[in-house]
Amino acid sequence: MRKQSAIVGSGFMVSYACTAKCRHCMYGCSYQGRRDYVTPEKAEEIMAQLEWAGVTDLHIGGGEPFLNFEGLLEVIRAMNQHQILVDYIETNAFWCTDQDAAEEKLRKLADLGVETIMASCDPFHSEYVPLDRVTTFVRACRKVGIGYFVWKEQFYRRLSKLDPKEAHSAEELKEALGDNYIIETAREYGIGMNGRALQIAREIYPKRPAREVSEKTQCTRILRGMHCHVDLYGNVVPAGCTGFAVPIEDFTERRDRLTDPSVYPVLARVLTGGTKALLEYAVSLGFDPETEAATNCDLCYQIRCYLREHGDYKEIGPDVFYEMMET
Ligand code: SF4
Ligand code: SF4
Questions:
Q1: What is the pTM of this model?
Q2: Is 192 helix (H, G, I), strand (E, B) or coil?
Q3: pLDDT (tens digit, 9 = 90+) per residue, 103-125?
């Protein structure tokens, strides 16, 4: 029997690269920038660590896992090798251009024991992926007999009134769904306002000076092992809180290091004194306290960008996240 793990109900990010650049993407994924995809060797190393840490199951996400189909098969083999169950695979269905080819891929996944695949479908994805791809995905899954779900089905119905063969601009979506569709979709989804979705938060909430926005409350969201991700570099990416990267062993076994400012000066301050403590630390290093932010996470992001530029903080990462956020 495996030990109780600090990582539960979580996912493995095979890449930050994607065919889309959705405006709500918490992980800042993009078709611009680095195309790193987890190597078979690294996947094996990470799964061995996760098995040792007691992890029993993970979903596979990204970025877009199907950008490197052979790489995806290797990840599943590594998970099988270490008795880590694939809960499901996330995809935006961009690869479902031809039903026969899609079925062939699905059969290969089913042969490795994959039981469920999830296709994203909403107005944000439809700026990059035609609805037809999701339809082909569903048909192919049914034909092969592999489990699937579309997240979220109500958006599929609503988007059906637009040309399914095309992706759609924000202007077209406004015309079809209403001027306020970005904010309404974000609310309906209940999206975490972090990563690229910080831009949505900036449209919803008024900006205020840093000292007003910062909070004393310890920001312990980072410590939650539920719904977090492990990325292709072996970082634990906290749930709902992106732009921090902690090695698996510190997150699972040596958690006292997370609150030690001599090890993680940024992380430790947010964990023990909230963004208030982080702000004071950053101001002492030249950050402008008059900087305006819409939310606590927006401020936290801006401070981390500043610190990253002016120092070397291993917990502010991975680099690809910050690079893609700038694209
Ligand atoms: S939300 Fe999904 S499809 Fe969209 S950019 Fe992020 S990883 Fe890609
Ligand atoms: S304030 Fe910072 S540490 Fe807290 S949840 Fe937001 S991004 Fe994460």
A1: 0.96
A2: coil
A3: 999 999 999 999 999 999 999 99
